[in-house]
Every structure is written in C-alpha cells, then in structure tokens.
Amino acid sequence: MRVTISRKAHFNAAHRLYRKDWTFEQNDAVFGKCNNPNFHGHNYELIVSVTGEIDPETGYVIDAKILADIIKEEVEDAFDHKNLNLDVAEFENLNPTAENIVVVIWNKIRKRIESKFDLEVVLYETPRNFVTYKGE
Q: Is 74 among the residues known to form the active site?
C-alpha cells in the first residue's frame, strides 16, 4: 500500500535569466524582461511529495515534521529573500530558470530522504506557471 504525503512551502527570491556567454541582445531576445540586469522577483510556492509504504508501527510514510524540517533547512533557509544568481552557490554557473531551480531543490531534498521513497517536487513561479520534477 503506497501512499503519498505532500508538504507545501514558499519562499521569495530574486533572479535574472541570462547566459554570461551571450550578448545582452541575445539574452534579451530569449529571456525578454526576465533578463533585467537589476533582477526581478517571485513569490515561489513549493509542493514536496514523498511516496512510499506506510510504516505499520507509526502509520506514517514519513513524519510530516521531519519533511517540514528538511524543506526549511534545504530550501527556505537557503533561498528565501535571496538573489538566486548572487547568493546561492548552485546558481553561480547555472541559469536560475524554474526548470533548473526545481531540479536543484529536488537534489537537495533527495539527499535527505531515504532511497526507498519516491520524491516529486512541484515549483510554482507564478500561480499559472509551474514545473514538476520527479528525478531521472
């Protein structure tokens, strides 16, 4: 009997979409207003889901408090009120698109979740734009 437990979280962060090896014109053509040299921000919403067997002793797949602590430590503390391009090491040479952000978050959480569990991360950049990553 496999069950999925999910936890919602949020963080606010600024970023700029651009490639260092492209001209401003190339970046502007591809990334438009998201290429603003002064950055722009989002109120990101996050849903982390863990799927696995229910532990017969606890009745949990994973303790929701443990999942909440992992999300806080790996995502909220690391990304909230940060400039992703300047303040987050993972994006020093990685364009902080929603697609790249969700993979970085998944990798950070994956290392803290036992491999017997499946992990899915959904990241909302806006209420209408979101990405999902379940691993490779």
A: no
